[in-house]
Amino acid sequence: MPNNLTPPSTKPQIPHFSSGPCAKRPGWDVANLKNACVGRSHRSSAGKAKLAQVIETSKKILGIPADYRLGIVPASDTGAVEMALWSLLGQRPLDILAWESFGQEWVKDVVDELKLPDARLLKAPYGSLPNLDDVDFNRDVVFLWNGTTSGVRVPNGDWIKADRTGLTICDATSAVFAMDIPWEKLDVVTYSWQKVLGGEAQHGIIVISPRTVERLESYQPAWPVPKLFRLTQKDKLIEGIFKGDTINTPSMLCVEDAIDGLTWAESIGGLPELIRRSEANLATIAKWVEQTSWVDFLAEKVETRSCTSICLKIVDAWFTALSSQQQAEYAQKVAKLLEKHSVAFDIASYRSAPPGIRIWGGATVETADIEALLPWLDWAYFTVKAEAE
Fold first, then answer.
1. Which domains does the chain possess?
2. Cis peptide, bond prior to residue 15, ω within 30 of zero
3. pLDDT tens digits for 284-311?
4. Residues β-bridged to residue 153
């Protein structure tokens, strides 16, 4: 325990550590959006050019294969995942992996809404991964690359078979732009630019492989597919979606903000630098955790620790002796105390996750701000504990 409960003297310059929407890029200002194509149709030549710029620049930075398609779709990452599930599933048996809250949401869709007859759930508690060796790639496979609410990521793509006959559908919203994604192992990847790029919300991205296009054009689901989820028309892929002709009206302010984030990403060195920045934030927290007795990573294995949604559990004996309700209350008090001092906003664990702390470490977060935050975490925890005792 610290010798005193005097607040640290240095605060993070930017106290935004929310896991979504996430911190804006360093140096961001609303004036950066002055060239937004507002007051114009998104289907005008100027509007479509902006949308196409997001598509092509994203593919370039991420190194997406030339024969993969990237489209901007409604309703953030959730909409993109739902689009994939409703449009593609049902032809084959399914393996679905779940180890945190959003994975559980996709399970509900498959079991309760689509009512797939042969869906096998591979489940693990918060902090762990299911046994990846159990996945059958003769079946379609749905999984997250990184668990935003658990801070647990798959370590790599080595477990995914190159000669798979099913499709791999991956929700990678808190991984893309911060982790190395093996695109050739994935048939559908979804994300939102509100995560690692710090963009404004409500718009999703779906990336599909040639194998996915083949499925879309040869298979018709047994259930009605809502208009917002439709990727085909008369058994042919709607190519316009992947060229900037969006299904519904996008916010051109949000599109301009996405362009700003992508431009910044290119200016600092592209994907390698984005990954380096995120991993540096994780390494800084890992060093502090090693020296701190009251906290530990929620992820049980080092190789599965997320470098974006960094989830910590409180392991101090005083805290673990409390009831579950009390733990949640005191963890919230720690977060609220930090917010009161404008040190860190929105760092409490996700509502259905084990009580603790969740720090966004994506590429828009400066490592210096992480370093400034850590002494405040000690101060806040021991202040709350002292008041309780």
1. 30-267 (3.40.640.10), 271-388 (3.90.1150.10)
2. no
3. 999 999 999 999 999 999 999 999 999 9
4. 146
